[in-house]
Specification:
single chain, alpha/beta, Rossmann fold, UDP-N-acetylmuramoyl-L-alanine:D-glutamate ligase, 2 domains, eleven-stranded mixed beta sheet, seven-stranded parallel beta sheet, 18 strands, 15% strand, Nnr
Length: 500
């Protein structure tokens, strides 16, 4: 289903910043180049992408620090001046002479008649575009006050910003803000895509992410081992055509468990999403007070409020959690479901309230084919840590969650992560319009439907997360992000899942 050849190509692999620093020199040498030439290519790429994504900008404000990012900034400044732009360069320490390749770039700017100023808000007010070359990937502690004040001004200035390699103040590996972080419109990152740019707050901070391998990508990929893989919809081949002589039983029997008193909507969304994702038969086990609400208007759903054991025996896959609650009815349903799935090695998606029940009995249930779908708060409860810790180290805690429960963990949020204890993937699709009630319930239904149709849990997680997120993007493109509701995704999911 996943095109492994495409997934293994450089634009879809993620590398830690220290890996780039460690291997870029050798990769450059093997490619017939050197670090000085890479700096020239990086600065030119920044100017080119600024022109492409923020056209009609005549006055460039280029902010530089003291490392190699500053060198990239000076090269970009020189390119902009050659193109006839008005260019103002401001440095944190204008009189400081830089060393190495960055120093060469600084001298080239000065030799061309360029000045280096101290930053003022007046410079920002007069600019059409800001190039952020203040801080690179090497920082790993809170930034100094002189940088913080400039970053505050940039973020408050309402001017388009292009960041060089990484938004200044962002931890390139985790995506955590180191006290202050530039909120860029475009980030041009080099040699390898850094994981912190792809998920959580880092995805927000970098804006549109542009990758430039600077001509050394092939050599670099042979030297460095990637830490994660970027997922894109076109990497998947779909489920393929159905056999002419197939029947509803061919495509699985999915049981959705949830919908306690007053929360029928959650399990209805999950179960209907499963129907739209191709499950042959979908049955809902729900609280007696919820049966009418679940079945009304969707006669294709089978709905029951008794004999859970019989429903579990009928099912080939189970989704548990949407609207489940945590009262005695919920606990009884949870225990029966997890025991059954563990004893019969039956695939199960554990979502929402079922995650909160699972964390109370973390060692009691270890089904062999389990997919967990927590957001940061639920992942924090599963691991016994604050939600903020999860958000600050999403890659780390997605792996810990998968390892603790021996499951495939889908850590939801901006740049949803999938981790199976050995590998990590990041979904590049999705948008803030999907931050709406029931969106996660729809995802659990999609995952359950794929597993019911025989897709292995990890593959179902990769495809299902990408399918769900891309459906949200398609709806946002048609109608906008505001006002999107979870059931809007149904038709988009159906259209995508039928693409070859």
């Amino acid at each position: 289903m996943l095109d492994t050849q495409l997934a293994s190509s450089l634009p879809y692999k993620l590398y830690r910043a220290d890996q780039v620093r460690e291997h870029e020199k050798n990769a450059a040498q093997q490619s017939g180049s050197n670090l000085s030439e890479l700096m020239q290519r990086a600065g030119k790429a920044v100017f080119r992408q600024a022109q492409l994504h923020i056209p009609n900008s005549d006055t460039f404000l280029i902010l530089v620090g003291q490392g190699n990012n500053a060198g990239d900034g000076y090269v970009a400044a020189l390119e902009a001046r050659k193109a006839g732009k008005q260019v103002v360069v401001c440095a944190v320490e204008p009189d400081r002479e830089l060393e190495g390749d960055a120093g060469d770039a600084q001298r080239a700017w000065r030799d061309a008649g360029g000045d280096i100023h101290s930053f003022t808000v007046a410079h920002l007010d007069q600019a059409d575009l800001v190039i952020d070359a203040l801080l690179g990937t090497g920082i790993n502690s809170s930034i100094r006050s002189e940088f913080a004040s400039i970053i505050d001004a940039i973020n408050g200035g309402q001017k388009p910003v292009v960041s060089v390699d990484v938004p200044s103040g962002l931890d390139a590996n985790s995506g955590q803000s180191l006290g202050r972080c530039v909120q860029a419109d475009v980030t041009v990152t080099f040699v390898g895509i850094k994981p912190g740019l792809t998920t959580g707050a880092g995805k927000q901070s970098c804006g549109k992410l542009i990758f430039e391998d600077l001509g050394i990508g092939k050599a670099f990929q042979q030297l460095a081992k990637s830490t994660a893989t970027f997922l894109d919809m076109h990497m998947f081949g779909g489920l393929g055509p159905r056999d002419v002589h197939s029947h509803k039983g061919t495509y699985g029997r999915l049981l959705c468990v949830g919908g306690n008193r007053g929360t029928a909507g959650a399990i209805r969304l999950s179960s209907e999403a499963a129907l739209r994702s191709g499950a042959g038969m979908v049955k809902v086990y729900t609280h007696e007070s919820s049966t009418i609400q679940v079945s009304a208007g969707r006669p294709e759903l089978m709905v029951t409020n008794h004999d859970l054991d019989a429903s579990l025996a009928w099912a080939s896959c189970v989704v548990i959690g949407p609207g489940l609650g945590q009262d005695p009815w919920a606990q009884e349903a949870f225990e029966a479901t997890l025991k059954h799935c563990q004893a019969h090695e039956k695939p199960v998606v554990v979502d929402a309230d079922a995650l909160n029940l699972l964390c109370q009995q973390s060692t009691a249930y270890t089904p062999t084919a389990m997919v967990l779908t927590p957001h940061a708060g639920e992942a924090g409860r599963l691991l016994g840590i604050p939600a903020d810790d999860v958000e600050n180290e999403r890659f780390n805690y997605a792996r810990q969650c998968a390892e603790r429960y021996h499951a495939t963990c889908v850590l939801k949020g901006a740049g949803t992560l999938i981790d199976d204890e050995r590998n990590t993937w990041v979904c590049r699709h999705g948008n803030p319009g999907m931050a709406t009630a029931g969106s996660g319930d729809v995802l659990s239904g999609i995952l359950g439907a794929l597993m019911a149709q025989g897709v292995p849990p990890v593959d179902a997680a990769l495809y299902g997360v990408t399918l769900h997120a891309k459906a949200g993007d398609d709806i946002a493109e048609l109608y906008g992000q505001r006002g999107m509701i979870a059931s809007d995704l149904f038709e988009a999911v159906r259209a995508l899942i039928n693409q070859r």
